[in-house]
Amino acid sequence: MPINIPTTLPAARILEEENIFVMNEERAHSQDIRPLHIAILNLMPKKIETETQLLRLLGNTPIQSDVELLQMSGHVSKNTPSEHLLKFYKSFDEVRSQRFDGLIITGAPVEQMPFEQVEYWPELCRIMEWSRTHVHSTFHICWGAQAGLYYHYGIGKTDLPEKLFGVYPHVVERRSSMLMRGFDDVFMVPHSRHTSVRREDIERCGKLKILASSEQAGVYAMATEGGRQIFITGHSEYDARTLESEYLRDKNAGLPIHVPENYYPDDDDTKPPMVTWRSHANLLYQNWLNYFVYQTTPYDLSAIRPV
To answer: For residue 205, what are the CA distances in angstroms to 128, 152, 153, 222?
Structure first.
């Protein structure tokens, strides 16, 4: 089944060219079914790139979803045209009276700052609190996961000796979790971050289950019982060239950066990167939408219970 997004959104043309099922608004409104209502709070600087990555994964599932793009009202984006934001994005105030089947909170390039020093932290806190009563399942990514763990459970982040940068092998720790259903014994995930969360802090919390982890990258997937809150520390949504773009940006700026691990053949950055994570990225989002949203969300969204 398709995602329903505005026909003029740049991602619509890209996804249609990739044969991802995108439904136009006219066709969606003529169907006598209730699609999922999904919001994406996009905190990444290159919003068009990130929204396309996430919409690609949501659009490759068998479930029809209406997608709402959200931005922080207390932050001015320097990397996305204002015309695009005005046309396709809404503020939290515009949707706070609504309820959603699912919410995705993306990462953000602010991980080396204390949470309280991030300019939009108070607004993000209001959104995360609102999600407890107005969203059936919230999916947090990278810094969004760290922010959610800190806000909801008081779990802090720690600085890494050097940037964790590359594609790393992971293993499933909790086979009984439906989020991990169908995953291979070892699966690959891109990471790009300077901070991490400690396993012992998560285990001490008592309300979170560790679902998957990596010897090199640490804990990868965590969730509350029932999956109302899911936390993912990596970037499964990344395109083939996303890590390369970050690598060349830092390399050309003279910043300390190493070749992304397990990314280029023989670590040769003149060769095209190897994509080893795409199938599991699709499976991750399919499982989330199917088992933690579609199968359990109330038909009447006003019946959502607080987390």
So the answer is: 18, 11, 7, 12
